[in-house]
Specification:
Blueprint lengths: L7 E6 L9 E5 L2 E7 L5 E5 L13 E3 L2 E3 L6 E2 L5 E3 L15 E2 L1 E4 L2 E5 L22 E10 L3 H9 L4 H4 L12 E7 L2 E12 L3 H7 L6 E10 L3 E10 L8 E13 L2 E11 L6 H31 L16 H21 L1
Antiparallel strand pairs: 1-11, 2-3, 3-4, 4-9, 5-6, 6-7, 7-8, 10-11, 12-18, 13-14, 14-15, 15-16, 16-17, 17-18
This protein binds FE2/S2 (inorganic) cluster (FES).
Length: about 350
């Protein structure tokens, strides 16, 4: 499958890699493993020893190095072989492992699989509400047997909540005003529910909305390839949105393969609300887990089983008005992939 290569992808939550704890993960069809050097900095190397191709993630961390568990070659954090326990100890010229640029930001490990010379950390998308110094951040992960763009469709078109997540919904949702907007190769999808809805308690707590009838909104901002910020807000019916409360979530999808995805999601609250914000975000992550796992994932995985290895758009799906944002996002991705291909020629 074709991916945008010269772009940052989220590979893991930062706490998935700790001292002496390796993480092996396939990303964009590439087996990669991560560990921290003695300074605590994340390291990403191809998960394949250049000798007999054993996964290096089965090895042992030795200081700033990884020792292959099969014949003991040792590689440093740049992927250079620094120790050969055999014969005269000479190190073969080709004894290197590709290393990849990584950055730790927003409680996540960001990986660059494209041209390393273009790996500018300034290109990591901005998620100010994910800054842990100013915000409580609760995180979750999920593995989905579906293409990452099916997940992008799912978040950019929240009309599905009426049918897939009755717990998030009410009859007012289908009457929402829906708009989308393109801004500099990013897409906004806005769903404003203005029917004096009295949401279920669950929604009230999860979205931090007031008692009584409310107006609420679900605004999603997408950036390539698959980074979404979801602003779920509510306000006493008839009041301006600026007077309301907003729950800010991150939904990030990284392809594992063309048909499987690593889903990273986060619920946040500003630290200014007080220490109970930590409980709110952790509860938020717990609450979202069940609908993601038992309601979204089954439908996306079933979609994928119908698609097989064929891209959705190659089958000419019918397009509804609710598909405008996801169709725009898919076009931007296709354009970026095409641009990379043209540059490579
Ligand atoms: Fe790694 Fe032989 S396979 S040292």
């Amino acid at each position: 499958m074709a991916y945008i290569k010269n772009i940052w992808y989220v590979a893991a939550w930062a706490d998935e890699i700790s001292d002496n704890k390796l993480l092996a993960r396939k990303l964009l069809d590439v087996p990669v493993f991560f560990f921290r050097d003695t300074g605590g900095n994340p390291v990403a190397l191809l998960d394949r020893c250049p000798h007999r191709f054993a996964p290096l993630s089965m090895g042992i961390i030795r200081g700033n190095c990884i020792e292959c568990s099969y014949h003991g070659l040792r590689f440093d954090s740049a992927g250079k072989c620094v120790h050969n326990p055999h014969g005269d100890g000479r190190i073969p010229v080709r004894a290197t492992v590709p290393s990849f640029p990584v950055v730790e930001r927003y409680s996540a490990i960001w990986l660059w699989l494209g041209n390393p010379e273009e790996a500018d950390p300034a290109l990591i998308p901005e998620f100010d509400f994910m800054e842990p110094e100013q915000n409580f951040v609760g995180t979750g992960t999920m593995h989905v047997k579906g293409n990452y763009l099916l997940e992008v469709d799912n978040i950019l078109d929240l009309s599905h909540i009426e049918f897939v997540h009755p717990m998030f919904s009410s009859p007012a949702v289908s009457k929402a005003q829906v708009t989308h907007e393109l801004v500099d190769d990013t897409v906004w999808s806005r769903r404003d529910i203005m029917e004096d809805e009295t949401p279920p308690d669950f929604i009230r707590q999860a979205m931090n909305v007031p008692e009584g009838p409310v107006d609420r909104w679900l605004h999603v901002h997408w950036q390539a390839p698959s980074y979404m910020a979801l602003f779920a807000g509510g306000v006493a019916a008839g009041q301006p949105f600026e007077h309301g409360m907003v729950s800010k979530q991150a939904h990030w999808f990284t392809p594992e393969t063309g048909q499987t995805t690593h889903y990273f999601y986060a619920v946040t609250q500003p630290r200014s609300i007080g220490p109970h914000g930590a409980d709110i975000v952790n509860q938020g992550v717990e609450v979202l887990k069940a609908p993601f796992q038992y309601e979204d994932a089954p439908i996306i995985e079933a979609q994928q089983s119908r698609l097989g290895e064929t891209d959705l758009m190659d089958l000419y799906p019918i397009i509804l008005n609710v598909d405008a944002a996801s169709t725009a996002a898919r076009k931007i991705i296709a354009k970026k992939i095409q641009s990379e291909k043209s540059r490579a020629v």
